[in-house]
Design a protein that fits this description.
Two copies of one chain form a homodimer. The first copy, chain A, is 33% helix and 22% strand. Chain A has ten helices and eleven strands. In chain A, strands 7-6-5-10-8-11-9 form a seven-stranded parallel beta sheet, with helices on both faces. Chains A, B: GO terms for molecular function: RNA binding; RNA methyltransferase activity.
């Protein structure tokens, strides 16, 4: 395989993609790690513009790359673009997929996942990965939620980034809109009034709302809506991790 | 509340508990963070011998502590005992609960979770937390699995540490023994021969085996045993995170 030499300007640009404001400005993001890059290439849902490999890394042999320029970076240059403590030697520079419009998202049947202020990148990535496994039809990224194209989120999706339509949304107004067009909302919440997930019927047009890791879902969103809880014993442990709770609900609600 | 001053020897001892070999030698471990410490105290399944608070931290007011000596540490001393980058100001020094013997574990009805070479502390902690939520009756900690009393594991259990009987086990021989006494094993594995979790009957004496994050369950353990997979679309993403897969299986297998 033939490697290209990056220019200083290219290096500078890639490095900047570690920051949210530049990702937004450039409409690009970084996907790091063999498994993640491999899956993104195979899946073909995200356009990869460049592959960056660390000099002497053997990881490149494991990838089947066609028509994508591959740049070789020295160790310190590679580390300056990497977001991890122990880089695996491969990074893909990708075009950010466009957001879905509301109309498209709401016309479909399916299962939508709405994130309300999810702050931990690893948690969000895992939830996108699991949503993808269960073929969710859309993601609503509510305010206060970490950027879904943050390098750690992307890494935690294990290649599922871009597999599902998404939009950044004001959940307060957009959930109302979706309800008006016939979608049914289940808020994952452990409170007393919540019904058990096992008795929560699915309708084919369902929205699961998952809230902040520490504080749960914003009480405003809960008003007059169905709260659903995962049955379990809260004497031993107060609650489930947000990604775990969502996954169990996805399993229950998915058509599989 | 009255605070004690720690001696240098005490500080040295607590610091050493960050290392596995000293945890084993002293039969003690550290639990860090308000939520985790609070839950461990309330739960009363683990004996807390000392509480350490950072000077001027207000966190102590949120805890109801009786009959446990509370030591106040200056910032740098506290940080030297802490395992986190941004300490929350409270650590509990706890006695490690004794391992269950095989006889006790295998006599019970219930749901046992066996960990085969789980390496990520956060993953193991989340799995113990979830196992506790679903009232698993026992945990088998297979070789190659991170120490369940590692500070990060303990933090990730969110206070569930000690809630479930456990033993460190050679899974190869102990699973055979359990089978002989009538337990039924389901190996979580995404391979083609696996049956869908939805069609996996529970028997009341079930063991779920979850394998290494990257490599899955050791093939030796799989031989002649039932493999179970979570139904889903592996085109979008190759697999589920180990903690997610186990949680969904626990939901399906638990009596709730």
């Amino acid at each position: 395989m033939e490697f290209k030499e990056p220019s200083n300007n290219q290096l500078k640009k890639w490095r900047k993609l570690l920051q949210g404001k530049y990702r937004k400005q450039e409409n690009q993001f970084l996907a790091e790690g063999l498994r993640c890059v491999d899956q993104i290439i195979q899946q073909k849902k995200v356009i990869v513009t460049e592959i960056l490999v660390e000099r002497n890394s053997e990881v490149i042999g494991a990838l089947s790359i066609k028509d994508i320029p591959v740049y070789e970076l020295g160790q310190s240059d590679f580390e300056s673009v990497s977001d991890t403590e122990t880089p695996q030697g491969v990074i893909a520079v990708c075009n950010t997929p466009a957001e879905s419009d509301m109309e498209k998202l709401s016309k479909k049947e399916g299962l939508i996942v709405a994130f309300d202020a999810i702050q931990d990148p690893g948690n969000l990535g895992t939830m996108i990965r699991t949503s993808s496994w269960f073929e969710a039809s859309g993601l609503l990224i509510g305010h206060g939620t970490v950027d879904p194209f943050h390098p750690k989120v992307v890494r935690s999706t294990a290649g599922a980034t871009g597999a599902i339509s998404y939009r950044k949304a004001d959940l307060h107004s957009e959930l109302l809109q979706l309800e008006e067009s016939g979608w049914n909302i289940s808020i994952l919440d452990g409170s007393e009034n919540a019904i058990s997930l096992k008795s929560a019927d699915k309708t084919g047009r369902d929205i699961l709302v998952i809230g902040n890791e520490g504080n749960g879902v914003n009480p405003k969103l809960l008003q007059n809506r169905r709260a659903v809880k995962i049955p379990g014993n809260s004497n031993n442990v107060e609650s489930l991790n947000a990604a775990i709770a969502l996954s169990i609900a996805l399993y229950q609600f998915s058509g599989k």
